[in-house]
Fold this sequence. Notes:
The chain is mainly α and 302 residues long. It has helices spanning 2-10, 17-33, 36-47, 50-65, 77-99, 111-120, 126-141, 164-173, 178-192, 197-217, 219-226, 230-238, 249-260, 269-281, 289-301, and strands at residues 107-110, 149-152. The relative contact order is 0.07. It comes from Edolisoma coerulescens.
Amino acid sequence: LLFPVSNLCGKCRPRDTDLLQPSLNFLYWSLHQTAPCSQQRAVAVLLSNVSLLELLQKVLECTWLWSPPSRPAYLSSEDALLCSGWLLVASLLLYQHRYNTEVHQTLSVDLTEVLNAVIFRNKKPILLLVSIMQFLRAVLRQNFSSSLLVIVGQNTAPSATLPQQSSLQDTALHPLAMQQVFSLVVSLQNLLVHKDLLLSQAVVACLETLVEYLYVKNQDVALHVASQPWHRFLLFTLLSGGQKSFLQPEVLRLMTLFVRYQSSNIISQKEISQIVQEAAEANLAELPEATSCALHLFLSQV
């Protein structure tokens, strides 16, 4: 089925949302659900279809064209198509890298537009934000060096008017700039305050990947980002309200991040002891799977 469905997608226009959206969802599902022995073949089938990749290029570009100020808060058919497009491209990046699959057609993405979509949001629906963050995670994990992707609109050579330290940091973090990094971190923190489960999971995962990327590029910058005092206020905000327990997946994953990068000003021995105490008193068999996994990672890191 991959052959006819991918060929059908290649004959469509981005405005053919009724046909394209379920078709892209089918391709995405096929990549993730096929047996491991067939997954490499599935990736090769999709990456060899030039017309499909050209269609995906147009869909991604529509993200910036279909963003009027009066955009509704609900998920329109156009936004649903954009979600499917970003998720499929993120998956293709992941599996192309895993299997080192031959690329017949590259995709071009404006890095500044992607970052601004998360930083400024502009009333984009939550699911679209999550989809774009999945893509951002994929390119961060591959150090912006995928053979499937061409990054444009990136940070160019540092300006002579910048302080020398900022110039050196921008060079080390290329294609990101320090200003973009801090803007992104603040925006991710603000999105966490919404306390939407799907959004929280995507935000924490994106923050984890970003700090990992920074640590490889410049350890001082990564540790500086991970130890920002605002993170502690963020934790108090997440723990406020009806559910004060530390045993929330996004809280546990944030705590794990701060322990990993030794941010003692954000998480103290007292908080670590509270989490261990709550875990000892909880019925572990009744914890949701996401909480169990996050708790396991936290205790392993400690």
